[in-house]
Write a sequence for this structure.
C-alpha cells in the first residue's frame, strides 16, 4: 500500500527517521508526486510546522513523496500523526512527477482536521521546504506519541 508524505516526513526533513527505521515497518521510496485534488498546505506556528488542511478543492496540487509501506509502518504513521484524533488518514489519488511512473496512484494521506477557519486565510503552498530542522528534529525525537498529541493540541489553541 502507498502513503503520500508532504511535510516533515520527507527525505532530509526532521522526521524522515520514522520512515527510515526498519523496526517501524517497511517503507520503500516510490516516487515524487502531486495530489490530484487541490489542498491548502500551510506552514504555521512559531515552529513553522506544515499542515495539510482537510479541505479539498482550494489551495494547490501539493508536491510530496510516495512510499510503499506495510501494515506495521502504516500503524506507526497513524500513531506518529495522532490519527484519527489530530489527523485523518484517507485515500487520495496522486500523480507521479518527472516521468517517474506512468500511472496515478491511490495513496494514504494525512490531513489536519478540526482546524479554525482562520487558517484558510493563511498562505497556501504547493510544497513544504524544511526549516527549523534542528528544532523540529529535537522536539520530535524526544516526544512520546502522547506528548506529540499534546504538542499539536497546544498548537491548535495558539493558531
Amino acid at each position: 500500500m502507498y502513503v503520500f508524505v508532504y511535510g516533515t516526513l520527507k527525505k532530509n526533513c526532521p522526521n524522515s527517521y520514522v520512515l527510515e527505521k526498519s523496526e517501524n515497518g517497511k517503507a520503500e521510496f516510490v516516487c515524487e508526486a502531486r495530489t490530484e485534488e487541490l489542498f491548502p498546505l500551510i506552514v504555521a506556528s512559531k515552529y513553522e510546522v506544515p499542515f495539510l488542511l482537510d479541505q479539498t478543492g482550494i489551495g494547490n496540487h501539493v508536491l510530496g513523496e510516495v512510499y510503499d509501506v506495510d501494515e506495521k509502518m502504516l500503524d506507526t504513521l497513524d500513531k506518529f500523526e495522532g490519527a484519527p484524533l489530530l489527523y485523518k488518514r484517507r485515500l487520495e489519488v496522486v500523480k507521479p512527477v518527472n516521468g517517474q511512473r506512468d500511472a496515478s496512484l491511490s495513496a494514504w494521506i494525512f490531513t489536519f482536521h478540526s482546524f479554525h477557519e482562520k487558517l484558510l486565510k493563511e498562505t497556501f503552498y504547493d510544497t513544504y521546504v524544511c526549516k527549523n530542522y534542528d528544532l523540529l528534529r529535537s522536539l520530535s525525537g524526544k516526544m512520546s506519541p502522547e506528548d506529540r498529541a499534546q504538542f499539536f493540541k497546544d498548537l491548535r489553541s495558539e493558531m
